[in-house]
Amino acid sequence: MNANLLILDGNQVAAKIKEQLEARISRLATKGVVPCLATILVGDDPASTTYVRMKGNACKRLGIKSIRIDLPAETSTDQLIATIKQLNEDSEVHGILLQHPVPHHIDERAAFDSISIDKDVDGVSTQSFAQNAFGFAAFPSCTPAAIMAILEYYKLPVSGKHAVVIGRSPILGKPVSAMLLNKDATVTTCHSKTTELERFVRSADIVIAAVGKPNFVQGDWIKPGAVILDAGYNPGNIGDVDYEACLPYASAITPVPAGVGPVTIATLLKHTVDSAEKKQGI
Amino acid sequence: MNANLLILDGNQVAAKIKEQLEARISRLATKGVVPCLATILVGDDPASTTYVRMKGNACKRLGIKSIRIDLPAETSTDQLIATIKQLNEDSEVHGILLQHPVPHHIDERAAFDSISIDKDVDGVSTQSFAQNAFGFAAFPSCTPAAIMAILEYYKLPVSGKHAVVIGRSPILGKPVSAMLLNKDATVTTCHSKTTELERFVRSADIVIAAVGKPNFVQGDWIKPGAVILDAGYNPGNIGDVDYEACLPYASAITPVPAGVGPVTIATLLKHTVDSAEKKQGI
Q1: Does the interface predicted TM-score (ipTM) exceed 0.90?
Q2: In sequence order, what are the beta bridge partners of B186?
Q3: pLDDT per position as a tens digit, A203-223
Q4: Backbone phi, psi, residue A86, to 5°
Q5: B184, CA 20 to 30 Å: which among A92, A194, A222, B52?
Q6: A133/B129 CB distance under 8 A
Q7: Is any Cβ of chain A less than 8 angstroms from the Cβ of B186?
Q8: Is A109's Cβ below 8 Å from some Cβ in B?
Q9: Which of A169, A193, A54, A28 is nearest to A112 (CA)?
Q10: Pick the CATH number of B32-116 from 3.40.20.10, 3.10.100.10, 3.40.50.10860, 2.60.120.680
């Protein structure tokens, strides 16, 4: 391990975000407003159930109301969209989160895109993506926003750096590529069809692992001094990065767990409070 | 110049696209439908006036109706949007093009985004961008679509190739990066804040110049065998690529003029016909 290695502590970043939220939630309370996040879980995937529970608990601890809607695995796309539309209309709900992934027979994209952009605190809709890619106001997807928040918290420079994003999903690889580009990084987006992936990673100042394969990124792929953010969450709390193998090369790295994960949840809470404030004209 | 150099002839690609459109336009005529493109020009910038005239002439030659709306330079954003909304409502209009750029006092993004997605044949709205980035149906921005059409026409492989896009504008650099990524290229998006631009270009299999600086891309930046597409259109019909200097290195290159330009116009016509057919349920 190199002497100057910085472990990017997601719990610390999340604590800072939550601390700032507490004052804002108290202020909303004086106006009789309680920020409210509605979470929809379709089916009973164990990992998804855990995530939804974690998000609900995080809301509760901070004084954000959470509504949990559990739908059976056999729910149709139309039924799911009808549920979302009810929540769009519900004036007490400030944020709507549809837990990804939904069962295969559901058109997840249609469901995501039925979430009103004002309540899309998870930043999953097509319109939210585009607004963010073009640098407008809209809630960015939470994991990409968490990655940016960690870089900002630790004052790690992005402008002019070469960022290599491994993964191109609509809720992670594509939006984080867009957000890094908007912060003036030179961004390379890699994926399963990339040839010579190692070559790209070796030239990266910032590596974003968003590939969904445990311990995928190898230590000897890392340019000495690179910053590594691991957005992977594989079964068993294993990241996409071979953490121990990368320690000798990285200048900064997120652990898994306690890296990107807690900041993602804090970002979701922040967006919910942002939405509640916006509705109040604050 | 290397012996196997392929000059990517935009006129040839455009002619092929137009040939396919003729039959479709005739078929629409039997149903009493004439595809119609409305073009809005705000102010009297000479280059923009030329582009609008070229597009109008191209429509006329193919049997597409064109409506040209000239607005004074002092038009407000609200007035422009009101004009666009009238065209959105007009059932005889299948495509709406707002000539870029508009005078500085106008919120161009708001104007672009007021174009109905069904009629956004120039692919400039935020929603059109996002739908394309995610690989859905929507009209892609015309110049990026023209670049992809040239690659396809000449059967130049994209999957697994390293594409370097120089430029990140909302109507060119960002959408062409997204479209190349969706065709499985590994895409690096470079821009004014990129350090060591030459290094990125030197590793590219496909170079997209979309920077708006005459003769910017130098010959000795080009990896031997690279494919170069020049989307630049600088005053005096000068591209972004130093064409002569790149000839010894490239395996294929678009000239300026007669490269990307004519295919962009043909793509605009194609989208207008697509829109007319879609409205007829064809």
Answers
A1: yes
A2: B162
A3: 999 999 999 999 999 999 999
A4: -60, -40
A5: A222
A6: yes
A7: yes
A8: yes
A9: A169
A10: 3.40.50.10860
